[in-house]
C-alpha cells in the first residue's frame, strides 16, 4: 500500500455529492395569514425569532396579510425548524416547505 497517496476519490465524491444535495434542497419558512394575530404580534415575532429588521418584518406582515402566506426565510431544515416551532408556539401558523 502506498502511504504517500492521500487523495481518496471516493471521499471527495461523497463530500461533493453531500454539498450539492444541501445546496439543491433549501427550505422556506412559510408564515400563514389568520384573523387572530395582530400585525404588531407578527412583526415582533419576525424580529425576535427570525432576526428581521422592523421594516423587513412589516413588509412580510403586509404580504402575509394580502397573499395569505409568505416565505419569510429561506435556509436549511436544521436552522429553520426551531424558528418554525417558536413561531407556532406564539400561535402563529408557520410551516416548512421544500423549495421546488
Keyphrases for this structure?
single chain; 100 residues; alpha+beta; 4 helices
Short summary of the structure?
It contains four helices and three strands, in the order αβααβαβ.
Characterize the structure shown.
It contains four helices and three strands. By secondary structure, the chain is an alpha+beta fold. α2 crosses α3. It is globular, with a radius of gyration of 19 Å.
How does the SSE layout of this entry go?
Layout: H1 9-24, E1 27-32, H2 39-50, H3 54-67, E2 69-75, H4 77-89, E3 94-98
Antiparallel strand pairs: 1-2, 1-3
Helix pairs in contact: 2-3
Order of neighbouring strands in the sheet with most strands: 2-1-3
Radius of gyration: 19 Å
Number of helical elements: 4
Note the run of SSEs as H and E. Answer: HEHHEHE
The first-level CATH class name: Alpha Beta
User: Considering the protein shown, what is the CATH homologous superfamily?
Assistant: Ribosomal protein L7/L12, C-terminal domain/Adaptor protein ClpS
Major sheet summary line:
3 strands, antiparallel
Helix content: 55-70%
Which term fits the overall shape? globular
Global structural class: alpha+beta
Give the rounded overall mean pLDDT.
Answer: 84
> Per DSSP, what share of the residues sits in E-state strands of 2 or more residues?
15-25%
Distance between the termini: 46 Å
Give the low-pLDDT segments.
1-9, 11-18
Question: What CATH architecture do you see?
Answer: 2-Layer Sandwich
CATH topology heading: Ribosomal Protein L30, Chain: A
